[in-house]
Each structure stands twice: as C-alpha cells, then as structure tokens.
C-alpha cells in the first residue's frame, strides 16, 4: 500500500506540522549524499486503554545516542519530540500506527565533513500492518543466509541506527527476495550469525533461548530486549551474549525474528532446510502470545513501557 492510499496527511518537520506532500528537503542535503542520518521505528498499539506508544522512552534514548558518533546534536529536546509525536498521532486520528522519527544533516555545503550543515528533524506516522506478510506471524517465513556480510563495529558504529547503514540491509533483503525467500539472515565478518536486515534473531534449543550478543555487530534492538525480559519472566533461560554459527541454524528446534516492524515472526526454513517440522514452535508461540497480550493491553504488566496518546 502506498502512502497516498493511507489516511495520513501530516508530517512534523523542524518544529512545524506540514502537509504530507510539502515535507521536502533540498536535493543537495548532506544526508542524501552520504547517509548521515539517524532514525527510529516505533509502534503505537490500539490497546484496551486507547492508543499507546510502546517503549517510547527507550526509542528516544537510542535516537539521541545514535547521533553521538556523528557529532549530531538533535536540536529538539525529549519533551518537544514527545509532544510532537503525540499530537501527530492525534491529528491523524490514528489508533495503531508506525512512527518514524528521523534526524539528518541538511543542506549548506557538500563536503564530506557535515560540520557546517544544519541538523533537520522530522516525524511521520502511518498505519502499518504485519511487516513480513499477513500469514508470517502464524506460519513463519522462509529465509536465506545472505552472501552479504554485516559490517563490523570496528568499521562503523553498529549500535547506532544510521540511515546509510541500511544499504547493507537492502542488499541482503533484496538478494533473498530475488531468490524466492521472504527475508535474509546476515552473518558477521567472522561468519557467525548477526541478525536479519531489519530484525534481531533468536534460536531455541532444548528449551533454552539464544540470541547473538552485541559483540556480534548487531543493533541493540528494543524488541529484542523486550523478548529477553518476557522470556525470563516466563521461566526460560536466555543466553543473550551467544555466538551462533551458521550450521546451528539448520539444527535449531526453533528460530524467530524480533523487531519493531516484524514484532515476533517465526522462521520455518533457512536455505530451504526446514527448522524442526517447519511450523511455529511452542516457545515462539508462547512468547508471541505474551508479547501481543502486553502490547494490546490484555496484560497489566510493564505499564512503564507505554506512553498513552
């Protein structure tokens, strides 16, 4: 579905609400040429107590932190960005939506150094359903191990959610789709499992849960952290600094992705090898249920994770 088919008409940009089609930047903006932007993906859920943004504070923490390696000082404080986001959701009468804050170096000069360029900030919100397909949450997805490797944290800061870094994600994901798969898995420079193009990954073996650690060049995912906490609350042992080899993917009892867009999505095949019996596993299903009970307001747990619109 294109944006023009959605019931959205407003974007917050540099302190003002503007019409969707008027939210424009200069073609010589630094961020366009060099990928010098940072962004977040956040979901607002239609809970039984009304629309609520999930883990907004943690997303804001990462948003500001992502700018630091690039000497990017975001020219709006937390309260301004929070109120802008709340008002944006209210103005468009959105009950559930995806929220995209982005900050980037704008237009002044086009040298590689961004020091003379202003930092521009925008926030958009729109309805967005299941990221990897309507049946993915129940039936799972088929993935391939990409030939593209994840960049190392010694090459570029992998703990920052940077616009330019997603060229790597795009290459891996499109390679997978050209080969008939829904999504990719990306290995790090050592050949161990890192993550998906836009998701963290979890493995279940013998009732215990494993996920690559931050040293494996992954993004410190907020949904990843949510899954780890929920799993431990449900009595599971979680190894959150694991090193997972490519071969372990094929022999896992269960695999699943986590992410703001993907939520919790089972993986049923890797490189055409079925994971166990090729269906959603019981641990994945239990964690999915716990996650959606939480974010849709059927559970009273973790009220501190919700910012009600």
TrEMBL record:
It comes from Halopelagius inordinatus. Its EC number is 2.6.1.42. NCBIfam families: ilvE_I, PRK06606.1. It catalyses: L-leucine + 2-oxoglutarate = 4-methyl-2-oxopentanoate + L-glutamate; L-isoleucine + 2-oxoglutarate = (S)-3-methyl-2-oxopentanoate + L-glutamate; L-valine + 2-oxoglutarate = 3-methyl-2-oxobutanoate + L-glutamate. It holds the Pfam family Aminotran_4. GO terms for biological process: isoleucine biosynthetic process; L-leucine biosynthetic process; L-valine biosynthetic process. Acts on leucine, isoleucine and valine. This is Branched-chain-amino-acid aminotransferase. Signal peptide: none annotated. One of its GO terms (molecular function) is L-isoleucine-2-oxoglutarate transaminase activity. It is an enzyme of class 2 (transferase). CDD domains: BCAT_beta_family. It comes from the Archaea. Its cofactor is pyridoxal 5'-phosphate. Belongs to the class-IV pyridoxal-phosphate-dependent aminotransferase family. Pathway: Amino-acid biosynthesis; L-valine biosynthesis; L-valine from pyruvate: step 4/4; Amino-acid biosynthesis; L-leucine biosynthesis; L-leucine from 3-methyl-2-oxobutanoate: step 4/4; Amino-acid biosynthesis; L-isoleucine biosynthesis; L-isoleucine from 2-oxobutanoate: step 4/4. The lineage of its organism: Archaea, Methanobacteriati, Methanobacteriota, Stenosarchaea group, Halobacteria. Keywords: Amino-acid biosynthesis, Aminotransferase, Branched-chain amino acid biosynthesis, Pyridoxal phosphate, Transferase.
């Amino acid at each position: 579905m294109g944006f023009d088919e959605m019931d959205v008409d407003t974007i917050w940009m540099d302190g003002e609400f503007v019409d969707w089609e008027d939210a424009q930047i200069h073609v010589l903006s630094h961020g366009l040429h060099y990928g010098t932007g940072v962004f977040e993906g956040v979901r607002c859920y239609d809970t039984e107590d009304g629309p609520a943004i999930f883990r907004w504070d943690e997303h804001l923490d990462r948003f500001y932190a992502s700018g630091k390696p690039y000497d990017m000082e975001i020219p709006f404080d937390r309260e301004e960005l929070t109120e802008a986001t709340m008002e944006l959701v209210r103005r468009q009468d959105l009950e559930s939506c995806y929220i995209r804050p982005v900050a980037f170096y704008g237009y002044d000069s086009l040298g590689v150094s961004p020091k003379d360029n202003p930092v521009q900030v925008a926030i958009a919100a729109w309805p967005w359903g299941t990221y990897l397909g309507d049946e993915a949450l129940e039936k799972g997805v088929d993935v391939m191990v990409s030939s593209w490797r994840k960049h190392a944290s010694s090459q570029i800061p992998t703990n920052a959610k940077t616009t330019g870094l997603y060229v790597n994600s795009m290459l891996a994901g499109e390679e997978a789709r050209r080969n008939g798969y829904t999504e990719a898995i990306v290995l790090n420079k050592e050949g161990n499992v890192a993550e998906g193009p836009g998701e963290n990954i979890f493995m279940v073996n013998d009732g215990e849960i494993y996920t690559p650690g931050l040293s494996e060049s992954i993004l410190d995912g907020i949904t990843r952290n949510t899954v780890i906490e929920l799993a431990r609350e449900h009595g599971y042992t979680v190894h959150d600094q694991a090193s997972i080899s490519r071969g372990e993917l094929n022999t896992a009892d269960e695999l699943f992705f986590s992410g703001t867009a993907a939520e919790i999505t089972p993986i049923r095949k890797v490189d055409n090898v079925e994971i166990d019996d090729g269906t959603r596993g019981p641990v994945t299903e239990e964690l999915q249920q716990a996650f959606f009970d939480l974010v849709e307001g059927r559970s009273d747990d973790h009220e501190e994770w919700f910012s009600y619109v």
